[in-house]
Structure formats: structure tokens, C-alpha cells
Write a structure and sequence with these properties.
By secondary structure, the chain is an alpha/beta fold. The protein contains 5 helices and 16 strands. The strands form 3 sheets. Strands 1, 2, 3, 4, 5, 6, 7 and 8 form an 8-stranded mixed sheet that branches. A hairpin with a 4-residue loop joins strand 12 and strand 13. The longest helix has 14 residues.
Amino acid sequence: MTANAGAHMTSTSPHREPIRVGVVGLSASGGWAAAAHVPALAGLDGYELRALSASSAESARAAGEKYAVPLTYGSAAELARSEEVDLVVVTVKVPHHLELIRPAMEAGKMGFSEWPLGADLAQAEELAGLAHRRGVLTAVGAMVLGEFREVSALIENLRPEVTHVTSGAVAAKTAEDQIAVTGVLESGAVAAVHIRGGTSRATAFHWEINGTDGDLVVKADQVPQRRPRVHASARPDHREPCAR
């Protein structure tokens, strides 16, 4: 473990001590944690970005210096055992969730994981069961309006061949590159989601939310992870804005 001398990022509440957050997967080279979690924590009242862990002690130190995080660890297990951390946030790819979330649950720490919780149902049930037995507060991100009540979907592979950008070699591609989902949410809102592979000359990310009290449109040229085209609208008699 290494402590950096620089000032750390803090958002405090006048009524209580801030929740000390440790982020698993915050990298000096950028990524989802740097683009989304660090700015969010800086803007939230009552939270302090206190620690981080990375794939090695060296990379953790580099990230700590870049983001002015005082405590850095070379593993998620070390971070989870720290008495300086109240909440562990896991921001890495899904295949590593089980091994990186488990130490936090075993240490009795509150945990926040990027969605989905596990690589499959068995992993998700294992982690949820461990959290329940330890009696810790947990949350999973990436949910806006809850689950679908009714849903239908289709997938297609419109580009069965891909070309290597350097060598020019052509290879077969079996993974689907188009996913279309439509359905009705538990709130009664109708949602349509289109996720496409590859790049686009148009908008890479488009999120449109239509509610009774107003509309919200979010666009971006690129997104660190998912790139859905999403539209959701409320029923005529639904009096609250809804989104997906």
C-alpha cells in the first residue's frame, strides 16, 4: 500500500463524516472509472474518493498521482481490508467481477458493482448470497427504470466477415452485431433499444427520454462501453417522466 502526499478529492456533508470510497480498476490511462465514477464522486455530497486499486502496485501509484487519491493498493483484496475504506466500487470488466467483489463482501464492506453483477447466474447468486450472509449494503449500476414487464428481441450478424486493419486478412465473424429489443417496462413505459457493432458516421450514442413533464436527449460521438440507441415514452395517463 502506498499513501500519496497530494490533496485528495473530497465531497463532504455538514451533518456526518463522508463515506470513504475505494475504487477497484481506476487507471491512469483512463477508462470507465475515470470517465464516469471520478467526476460523479467529486460532485456528490457526503462521499470521499479515498483509495484505489489496480492490477499492480506500480499502476495503482500512477493512478493515485493522476487523480490525487491518497491511498493506493496493488490488489482489490488489500483495498477491501483497509480500515480507511467504507464503500468498495468495482468498475472492471465482467469476467473479473467475482474475484474482485468477493473480497469486499468477505470484509463486510458496502459494495457497488457495475452491471451485470456476475458473468452468469451462478456468479451473481454467489455474490448476492455472500452479501446477504454478511449483512452488507450493496448496489448494481446501469438500471434506470427497472425491469421489463414484457419484452421481445432479435439479433442479427450483418457483417459475417471482418478485415484486419493492419494485415488486411479477412476472417469469418460469428458474433451478432445487431441487437434490437422492444418491450413494456414495469412502470408502463414503452422502451426500444438498438445496440449495433462497429462504428458509425452518425451518432454513436443516442438516448431519448420522453415523459409527460418533458423530454431529454443525450448524444455523444463515442461512449467508453455500451453504445445503445434508446427510446422510451410514457403512457398518455402516466404523470411522471420515465426513461430507459
